[in-house]
Design a protein that fits this description.
- The protein has about 150 residues and is mostly helical.
- The chain folds into 2 domains: about 1-30; about 35-140, Four Helix Bundle (Hemerythrin (Met), subunit A) (Up-down Bundle), CATH 1.20.120.
- The protein has helices at about 5-30, 35-45, 50-90, 95-125, 125-140.
- The longest helix has about 40 residues, at about 50-90.
- The radius of gyration is 24 Å and the shape is flat.
- The chain starts with a helix and ends with a helix.
- The model has no long low-confidence stretch (mean pLDDT about 80).
- This is Heavy metal resistance protein.
- InterPro entries: Metal_resist.
- It holds the Pfam family Metal_resist.
């Protein structure tokens, strides 16, 4: 076997070992839960919403999905402007600072819209359902801290 063949074989084996390691890691290690997944689980599976609550929740979720998508697009655009400003100024100049402010404003609008959505969903709940919902909201906001 030539030294070139050994090198190629070594590279191929290293690549296959790396791919195998990724698959084993994904199979054995728990995947992080998406933010808000626990809240979604409480709303749809643990609170036993009646048909009227489910119908109103669907309307709220559909409306928020469109709003969230628009705000996420605005955040993406703000990040593009930030990248362009960094590329232009190569430092923390006025264009970069303005682009950072735009990015933070877009993030803030998404956070405000998310909170308004959470409070709107809470309004759909009966008094006996709110404490479990509130606990899920707190958990979603504090998961991974401490």
């Amino acid at each position: 076997m030539t030294s070139t063949t050994r090198i190629v074989l070594g590279v191929v084996l290293a690549f296959l070992a790396a791919i195998g390691g990724v698959f084993v890691g994904r199979a054995l290690l728990p995947q992080p839960q998406q933010p808000g997944a626990a809240l979604h689980d409480v709303l749809h599976h643990k609170l036993t919403l009646d048909d009227g609550q489910q119908a109103r929740l669907k309307v709220l979720e559909d409306r928020f999905a469109m709003q969230r998508r628009a705000l996420e697009l605005e955040m993406r655009a703000a990040n593009t402007r930030l990248a362009e400003a960094i590329e232009t100024e190569h430092g923390n100049g006025p264009k970069v600072a303005a682009a950072v402010d735009q990015s933070h404003a877009a993030m803030g609008e998404l956070q405000k819209a998310t909170l308004a959505h959470i409070f709107a969903m809470r309004q759909l709940l009966r008094t006996d359902q709110t404490s479990q919902f509130d606990a899920a909201v707190v958990k979603a906001l504090t998961d991974g801290q401490g």
